[in-house]
Automatic annotation (TrEMBL):
Residues 92-136 form the RING-type domain. Gene3D superfamilies: 2.60.200.20, Zinc/RING finger domain, C3HC4 (zinc finger). PROSITE patterns: FHA_DOMAIN, ZF_RING_2. GO terms for molecular function: ubiquitin protein ligase activity; zinc ion binding. InterPro entries: FHA_dom (IPR000253), SMAD_FHA_dom_sf (IPR008984), Znf_RING (IPR001841), Znf_RING/FYVE/PHD (IPR013083). The keyword Zinc-finger applies. Residues 1-18 form the FHA domain. It comes from the Eukaryota. This is SMAD/FHA domain-containing protein.
């Protein structure tokens, strides 16, 4: 649950303010994927700059840690790269070329596969965080295994 405790700049849930300024809101249930914003972005005249904080919630994502159809299929795709079976290969969603044997690959924590040279600029610009371009799953690449 989330509640605004009489803040003047506001608490927003999925872009909707929970209560007017200075009024305490009722507790609101949070769900996976909700966007929380604390405060508002404002840039006024001389030195008046306020910044907000935005967060996207990830709740009950334990299913990602277990073997599922998605991760099992990705493992099959990677194993098929060691064979000459071109029909079972996939494409890199960034460059749209085939992922094939003897290429440098990056396997995201969500099991999507990319050419390393294609995904490298994204990895370097947001390190250690990684947001998958396909499924929008966020992962900390430096988290303990």
């Amino acid at each position: 649950f989330i509640r605004d405790t009489k803040s003047s700049s506001g608490t927003f849930l999925n872009h909707a303010r929970l209560s007017p300024p200075g009024v305490e809101s009722k507790p609101t249930l949070l769900k996976d994927g909700d966007v929380i914003q604390l405060g508002v972005d404002y840039q006024g005249g001389t030195q008046e700059i306020y910044r907000c904080v935005k967060m996207r919630l990830e709740l009950n994502r334990s299913w990602q840690q277990q073997a599922n159809a998605f991760s099992t299929n990705t493992l099959k795709t990677i194993r098929s790269l060691t064979t000459a079976d071109a029909a079972s290969c996939t494409d890199c969603c960034i460059c749209l070329f085939r992922i094939a044997s003897f290429q440098s690959l990056f396997v995201a924590p969500c099991s999507h596969v990319y050419h390393y040279k294609c995904i490298r600029p994204m990895l370097m610009s947001h390190h250690p965080g990684f947001l998958c371009p396909l499924c929008r799953t966020f992962a900390d690449l430096e988290a303990t295994v």
